[in-house]
Amino acid sequence: MIRLDHVSLRQGALLAVEDVSVTFEPGLVAVAGPNGAGKTTLLRAIAGLHPVASGSITGAGLSERIGFLPQSGEVDRRFPITVREFVGFGAWRRVGPQRRLPEAEYARIAASLTRLGIADLADRPIARLSAGQFQRLMFARLLMQDADIFLLDEPFTAVDSETEDALLDIIATWGDQGRTVIAVLHDQDLIQEAFPNTLLLARRMIAYGPSFDVLSAENRRLIRHAA
Predict the structure, then answer these.
(1) Can you tell me the distance from the alpha carbon of 169 to that of 197, in angstroms, rounded to the nearest whole number?
(2) Considering the entire predicted model, what is its pTM?
(3) Which domain holds residue 186?
(4) pLDDT digits over 154-184, tens only?
(5) What is the separation, in whole angstroms, between the first and last Cα of the chain?
(6) Any residues with CB less than 8 A from the CB of 46 and at least 6 apart, and which?
(7) Burial, 141: exposed, middle or buried (Cβ in 10 Å; 0-12, 13-18, 19+)?
(8) Which residues contact 170 (CB under 8 A, 6 or more apart)?
(9) Angle 161-176/131-145 helices, nearest 10 degrees?
(10) Which residues have a Cβ under 8 Å from the Cβ of 44 and sit 6 or more positions away?
(11) pLDDT higher than 60, residue 43
(12) For residue 78, is it left (φ>0), alpha (ψ between -120 and 50) or beta?
């Protein structure tokens, strides 16, 4: 369970998120809202990557509990590293960044790559992956982390429908396992289909609850004037 109590966040001198109070129970939650609504800033604050200007966030304080998926454009794909090595970074919390990975971890890497359908790319440099292949790679690294909480920032951007379905299957499995998944999403049809609950944000919290109710025509009208 993650609790935000009157949380406000700043981007420089600007107030990006204002006075948000919400409790996320285990399960799948979408964060929706217009561009500039503070969605990514809120997600990064929960991950401990953005300072809280006021209020408090509890339940997510232990970094080893969190798996964070940034937007794909934030990752420098020019770094000379293979797919296998990139996924291996997900094991660092268990073995430490300076130690050689034990054989058991290599078996986990292989299983993660197989689950994401990219086992045949294990020796390929990450710079040579397509957008969809790279997003599968990011999820393979998340599988290695085996976290209790997954924070996903626009996980389906620039992927094809086959990749989207594969990633949704993994997210659904996490939900069935009682983990907490909070995802920034724009596709309202997808949210209503796959995410039972939604936080609608436009700097302030517009609504939180069952996705069908939160994404009502009235609430969508409100966010056009609130951000």
Answers:
(1) 17
(2) 0.92
(3) 2-226
(4) 999 888 999 999 999 999 999 999 999 999 9
(5) 27
(6) 2, 4, 57, 60, 66, 151, 182
(7) buried
(8) 115, 116, 139, 143
(9) 10
(10) 50, 153
(11) yes
(12) alpha
Segments of the chain assigned E as strands: 2-11, 14-24, 27-32, 54-58, 66-69, 149-153, 180-184, 197-202, 204-210
**CATH number for the domain that contains residue 65:** 3.40.50.300
- Per-position DSSP letters for 18-58, written without gaps between them: EEEEEEE-SEEEEEE--TTSSHHHHHHHHTTSS--SEEEEE
Burial class (CB in 10 A: 0-12, 13-18, 19+), 88: buried
What are 152's two structure tokens? 């996903």
Helix (H, G, I), strand (E, B) or coil at 71: coil
Q: The tokens 């109590």 sit on which residue?
A: 5
d(CA 53, CA 10): 6
pLDDT digits (tens, 9 = 90+) for 182-205: 999 999 999 999 999 999 999 999
Q: Which two tokens mark 65?
A: 């509990």
d(CA 105, CA 52): 35
**Considering its fold, how many domains does the chain have in total?**
1
